[in-house]
Write the structure tokens for this entry.
Amino acid sequence: MRFLVFLGFILAGMLLFSQALAMMELPDMPGDISFGGATWHIHIPVLFSLGAVALSGLIIWAVKR
């Protein structure tokens, strides 16, 4: 159960950070997900999001210690 909660936080953090990073218009990285149609486009920067979530997790872990 605890793992599922942790996984949910990771996924939610990835989604939030991906939207914030998309506004910064960073260069495309390997592993990024990008798809769209004629009038819409979605770009999810996976590596930047994972890095940001991992960094925030380390900061929270260090503060709790």
